[in-house]
Amino acid sequence: MRNRIDQLNEFIKEEPENPFLIYALALEYLKTEPTQAKIYFDQLLKYHPSYLPTYYHAAQFYLEIDQRSRARQIYEVGIALTRKTEDHHALKELQNAYTNFLLDD
């Protein structure tokens, strides 16, 4: 049986612009290859900025690699976008994570 990354790579060959597949790959790579995860998070933020799930995990990733200013920027952009789209659930999650980030600073 193929692993999940192999499966996702096969799916992405068929739908290279599908943000969910790119996001799923980023999350899978977080476990084993953070450098690769970063590539996918950056791709999502650049080419699929309206894909809201990216913001929470990308900001958390940048915190983990000690790039706090980049994490702050991602939180702020994500919060603004969730307000604009009126996605209250995503807004609450991002605001809570951002508040914790600010308290840790």
Explain what the structure shows.
- The chain is mostly helical and 105 residues long.
- The chain has one domain (4-104): Tetratricopeptide repeat domain (Serine Threonine Protein Phosphatase 5, Tetratricopeptide repeat).
- It has six helices and no strands.
- α3 crosses α4 and α4 (53-64) runs antiparallel to α5 (68-85).
- The N and C termini lie far apart (44 Å).
Short description:
With 105 residues, the protein is an all-alpha fold. It has helices at 4-14, 19-32, 34-47, 53-64, 68-85, 88-104.
Overall 3D shape: globular
- The fraction of residues in strands falls at under 5%
The name of the CATH topology is: Serine Threonine Protein Phosphatase 5, Tetratricopeptide repeat
CATH-level-4 superfamily name: Tetratricopeptide repeat domain
Number of DSSP helices?
A: 6
What oligomeric state do the depicted chains represent? single chain
Judged by helices, strands and strand pairing, the structural class is mainly alpha
CATH level 1 class label:
Mainly Alpha
Name of the CATH architecture: Alpha Horseshoe
